[in-house]
From TrEMBL:
<comment type="similarity">
    <text>In the N-terminal section; belongs to the PMEI family.</text>
</comment>
<protein>
    <recommendedName>
        <fullName>Pectinesterase</fullName>
        <ecNumber>3.1.1.11</ecNumber>
    </recommendedName>
</protein>
<dbReference type="InterPro" id="IPR000070">
    <property type="entry name" value="Pectinesterase_cat"/>
</dbReference>
<dbReference type="Pfam" id="PF04043">
    <property type="entry name" value="PMEI"/>
</dbReference>
<dbReference type="Pfam" id="PF01095">
    <property type="entry name" value="Pectinesterase"/>
</dbReference>
<comment type="function">
    <text>Acts in the modification of cell walls via demethylesterification of cell wall pectin.</text>
</comment>
<dbReference type="GO" id="GO:0030599">
    <property type="term" value="F:pectinesterase activity"/>
</dbReference>
<feature type="domain" description="Pectinesterase inhibitor">
    <location>
        <begin position="63"/>
        <end position="215"/>
    </location>
</feature>
<dbReference type="InterPro" id="IPR006501">
    <property type="entry name" value="Pectinesterase_inhib_dom"/>
</dbReference>
<dbReference type="InterPro" id="IPR012334">
    <property type="entry name" value="Pectin_lyas_fold"/>
</dbReference>
<dbReference type="GO" id="GO:0042545">
    <property type="term" value="P:cell wall modification"/>
</dbReference>
<keyword id="KW-0812">Transmembrane</keyword>
<feature type="transmembrane region" description="Helical">
    <location>
        <begin position="23"/>
        <end position="44"/>
    </location>
</feature>
<dbReference type="GO" id="GO:0004857">
    <property type="term" value="F:enzyme inhibitor activity"/>
</dbReference>
<keyword id="KW-1015">Disulfide bond</keyword>
<dbReference type="InterPro" id="IPR011050">
    <property type="entry name" value="Pectin_lyase_fold/virulence"/>
</dbReference>
<comment type="similarity">
    <text>In the C-terminal section; belongs to the pectinesterase family.</text>
</comment>
Length: 586
């Protein structure tokens, strides 16, 4: 291994070694940046005529404009890309800086949309549309945050952690796109033209955000194709070149040793920062009171132990509350419950009993419920947009839209999720391992659907992945099984992507397996696959024959395992939660 003896180097020799490696890395970084420009520019050149007239014209184009056209070449909205960069980039030719300018312009567009939403809200008479505009303000704020993180990340370009660097950019840009789409989703079933107005206002911002994702994706493709020595994850990973002093007990320094012990400890012996108990034996009787004690934007884990009981609360772990860990007495013993729902006037986005926004959230032995009932339609128990969040031995109960995996990287292990329609939905990059999906008895004339993934752009690194899970039904459903129909999923958005692998599928799933959303929508662009499943409902003989339903190889299936798809070895494995990086041993 290239850096195999690194941990044993000491003194001046170690310092010199680190300097040499740093110089070498800077050299490779320069090569990569040059390669980015050359490779993209070549792509433009291949598409141009070689006539003398065109050659003369191209000679008049400024160097900056050539760079702009090159960086815009892989985007889907080229006119918007060229126009926005040419009016804002000045004489910049560095591809990295041009992409940053693109992010800045996108942020400015969203800020303008935010101002317009305030004006629209003042004129709005439809209560649902007014609430949707309220949600848009919050969602656009999240979108700006993700674009800002992407902007800052590009300023820290570091080839040492290239894979992680690109993965972060893609997931944050996907988040920015998702939040804009969620804003527009809120206007469904409204009676005014506010939705159409908002769509026009967000058009350019959406195009520029998706262009940013296209640029980053193209860079990733180019670097993979170049196969520059030393750039592979195995030979140049942060773990292999990290200073020995920056590791504690074999784990990266950012991982709290206490976190790993918490996953193994019984609740009674956990040393929590705050204890919540309905009987008064803790510091607080409600969880919301405990949230006020969480330090803002901390990198240290803050542990809230919530003793057994049913807590009727509406919780928001906001964006300033990072590295929060909630521990209960068990998924059926400690339960947070609410009943907000769409029928009674609350937008789906705001129906969640618990909303988790702050990054690096962990929940263990907790229950989350929306008790509104099937007749109240959309009623979310748990909404998650926390990047690198973990849920272990938790239970989410509801009917329609139980678990909203809204955005970013999420990991669920040994959890139970119950519901009727689209009860796991959203556009996060979410892995479910050893989980149980329980179909509940629906209303008359309703069909049950387990998943509704919401991937909007073909380049987004998002999907719902169920691995070694059990898809089954509750007893009340089984009594009426012959009169009811259930499906694995349906495409909520154009590039919906769901993979079910190494799982047990019960016989209440229809032979067709998958259900259309409406007509032929997304049937050619979705990506659905089943791999090495078992059980009576796993037989694929009579599955739908849509173009988007794929049979994948073992190698392709491995791309959707937690270690590869969400980089879980870096953040899930060190946490101490039970975790399988690759394919399960069946």
């Amino acid at each position: 291994m290239a850096f195999g003896g690194y941990n044993h180097v000491s003194g001046d020799q170690g310092l010199n070694g680190r300097k040499k490696k740093k110089i070498a890395i800077i050299g490779v970084s320069s090569i990569v940046l040059v390669a980015m420009v050359v490779a993209v520019a070549v792509g433009v050149g291949h598409g141009q005529s070689t006539s003398s007239g065109n050659a003369a014209d191209s000679g008049e184009v400024s160097t900056s404009m050539k760079a702009i056209k090159a960086i815009c070449q892989p985007t889907d909205y080229k006119d918007a890309c060229v126009q926005s960069l040419s009016s804002s980039a000045g004489n910049i030719t560095d591809p990295k800086e041009l992409i940053r300018v693109g992010f800045q312009v996108a942020m400015n567009e969203i800020k303008n949309a935010l101002k317009n939403s305030t004006v629209l809200k003042e004129l709005e008479k439809d209560p649902r549309a007014s609430k949707a505009l309220d949600d848009c303000e919050e969602l656009m704020d999240y979108s700006i945050d993700d674009l800002q993180k992407s902007f800052d990340q590009l300023g820290k370009y570091d080839v040492i952690n290239l894979d992680d660097y690109v993965a972060d950019l893609k997931i944050w840009l996907s988040g920015a796109i998702t939040y804009q789409e969620t804003c527009l989703d809120g206007f469904e079933n409204t009676t005014s033209n506010a939705g159409e107005s908002m769509k026009k206002v967000l058009k350019t911002a959406g195009e520029l955000s998706r262009n940013g994702l296209a640029m980053v994706s193209e860079i990733s493709t180019i670097l993979s194709a170049l196969q520059i020595p030393g750039l592979s994850r195995r030979l140049l990973s942060s773990e292999e070149i990290e200073d020995p002093e920056s590791k504690i007990g074999g784990f990266p320094s950012w991982v709290n040793v206490g976190n790993r012990r918490l996953f193994l400890a019984r609740p009674a012996i956990i040393k929590a920062d705050v204890v919540v108990a309905k009987d008064g034996s803790g510091k607080y009787k409600t969880v919301n009171e405990a949230l006020n004690d969480i330090p803002k934007k901390s990198n240290q884990t803050f542990v809230i132990y919530i003793k057994q009981g049913v807590y009727h609360e509406h919780l928001i772990i906001n964006k300033s509350m990072s590295h929060v860990m909630m521990v209960g007495d068990g998924p059926t013993k400690t339960k947070i419950t609410g009943s907000e729902n769409f029928i009674d006037g609350t937008p789906t986005f705001k129906t969640a009993t618990v909303s988790v926004v702050g990054s690096n959230f962990i929940a263990k032995d907790m229950g989350f419920e929306n008790s509104a009932g099937a007749a109240k339609h959309q009623a979310v128990a748990l909404r998650v947009q926390s990047d690198m969040s973990i849920f272990y031995n938790c239970q989410m109960d509801g009917y329609q839209d139980t678990l909203y995996v809204h955005a970013h990287r999420q990991f669920y292990r040994d959890c139970t999720i119950s519901g009727t329609i689209d009860f796991i939905f959203g556009n996060g990059a979410a892995i479910f391992q050893n989980c149980k999906m329980v179909v509940r008895k629906p209303l008359e004339n309703q069909q049950c659907i387990v998943t509704a993934q919401g991937r909007i752009d073909k380049r987004e690194p998002t999907a719902l992945v169920l691995q070694n899970c059990t898809i089954t039904a509750e007893r009340a459903y089984n009594v009426l099984r012959k009169t009811l129909k259930s499906y694995l999923g349906r495409p909520w958005k154009q590039y919906s992507r769901t993979i079910i692998m190494q799982s047990h599928i019960d016989n209440m799933i229809q032979p067709e397996g998958w259900l259309p959303w409406m007509g032929n929508f997304a049937l050619n662009t979705l990506f659905y696959s089943e791999f090495e499943n078992r059980g009576p409902g796993s037989v694929q003989t009579n599955r739908v024959k849509w173009r988007g339903v794929k049979k994948i190889t073992p190698q392709h299936a491995a791309d959707f395992t937690a270690g590869k798809f969400i980089g879980g070895d870096k953040w899930i494995k060190p946490s101490g939660v039970p975790y399988t990086s690759g394919m399960m041993a069946m």
